[in-house]
From TrEMBL:
<dbReference type="GO" id="GO:0006355">
    <property type="term" value="P:regulation of DNA-templated transcription"/>
</dbReference>
<dbReference type="InterPro" id="IPR000792">
    <property type="entry name" value="Tscrpt_reg_LuxR_C"/>
</dbReference>
<dbReference type="InterPro" id="IPR016032">
    <property type="entry name" value="Sig_transdc_resp-reg_C-effctor"/>
</dbReference>
<keyword id="KW-0804">Transcription</keyword>
<dbReference type="Pfam" id="PF00196">
    <property type="entry name" value="GerE"/>
</dbReference>
<dbReference type="Pfam" id="PF00072">
    <property type="entry name" value="Response_reg"/>
</dbReference>
<dbReference type="InterPro" id="IPR058245">
    <property type="entry name" value="NreC/VraR/RcsB-like_REC"/>
</dbReference>
<keyword id="KW-0238">DNA-binding</keyword>
<feature type="domain" description="HTH luxR-type">
    <location>
        <begin position="148"/>
        <end position="213"/>
    </location>
</feature>
<dbReference type="InterPro" id="IPR011006">
    <property type="entry name" value="CheY-like_superfamily"/>
</dbReference>
<dbReference type="GO" id="GO:0000160">
    <property type="term" value="P:phosphorelay signal transduction system"/>
</dbReference>
<dbReference type="InterPro" id="IPR001789">
    <property type="entry name" value="Sig_transdc_resp-reg_receiver"/>
</dbReference>
<feature type="domain" description="Response regulatory">
    <location>
        <begin position="3"/>
        <end position="121"/>
    </location>
</feature>
<dbReference type="GO" id="GO:0003677">
    <property type="term" value="F:DNA binding"/>
</dbReference>
<keyword id="KW-0597">Phosphoprotein</keyword>
<feature type="modified residue" description="4-aspartylphosphate">
    <location>
        <position position="54"/>
    </location>
</feature>
<protein>
    <submittedName>
        <fullName>Two component transcriptional regulator, LuxR family</fullName>
    </submittedName>
</protein>
Amino acid sequence: MIRILLVDDQPLLRSGFRALLEVEDDIEVVAEAADGRECLALVREHLPDIVLVDIQMPVMDGIEATRHIAADPALSHVHVVILTNYCFDEYVFNALRAGAAGFIVKDIEPDDFVHAVRVAARGDALLAPSITRSLIDRYIAQPLPKEADAEPAGLTNREREAVILVAQGLCNDEIADRMVISPLTAKTHVNRAMAKLHARDRAQLVIFAYESGLVAPPVR
């Protein structure tokens, strides 16, 4: 059973999301919150698999709530998915940097919304290659403050290569083709790199790769 915590300051939207999810046999909405502070209390109480959280809310916004969840070792299994009105904006990027696993646009088709929840529950980041490339093009290509010159220490050459390919927007099958290995081996390299770099998901690998200088932003 996939356990969901809904976080949005608009009761009507929360009701709509709940209605879509609770008709599914394998999904349960365990609680609802109207702001980030309430979200943190409920996520620790219910330990959901997925937190669907709006970005702009009173008291505490979704980015700050995401940062607290990502920093808590007791919540390492919890995947935060951002709910947004826009396909991609700076708020979403900041949420990904804070530890979100991906995002869902609020006007998504109902079937796609439910599918996205299941993808997140599997531990896969909700960043299709096209979205990863959009991330790179629109935000990482702009100057960003570096995180204390983080070095990809401890990575093998193959893991480093896999991180670079993830940062270029490739999925595991494409990484496998590029590295001439099986998709399972590609996934293993990616997962080991995430573990060594303490990255929660592929989104964090992308951000690390650029902010550490492992990959250079595209030249415009």
